[in-house]
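Re: beginner question about structure tokens

> Can someone show what the tokenized structure looks like for a real chain? I only ever see the sequence side.

Sure, here's an example I had lying around. Input first:
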Amino acid sequence: MDNIKDNLEFNVLGYQVKFSPTGDHNASPREAVELVRQEANAIKSKAPSLADGQVAVLVALKLASEKLNLAKEYKDNIQDLKKAAQEALNLVESAQA
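And the corresponding structure tokens:
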């Protein structure tokens, strides 16, 4: 894929941005931009006097917080799954003895 050719251009909070698919995730650039726009609009509706730059920082902080929470939840779920699998294995091994 040629990154220059695949760049899509969007207007977000008055800024023209070029954004291209990374290929790493299932979310499209359009979905990501739409999420940012929705978050920005929600913040601006609650605090219309904020500058666009302030809104952008608040959106970034909110999305970063959500990402960190999801990563922690994922890690905790994996640890719980490993623990349950080990307990099940121990139960099977004790039943075989």
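Each token stands for a local structural state, so reading them left to right follows the chain. The mean pLDDT is 89.
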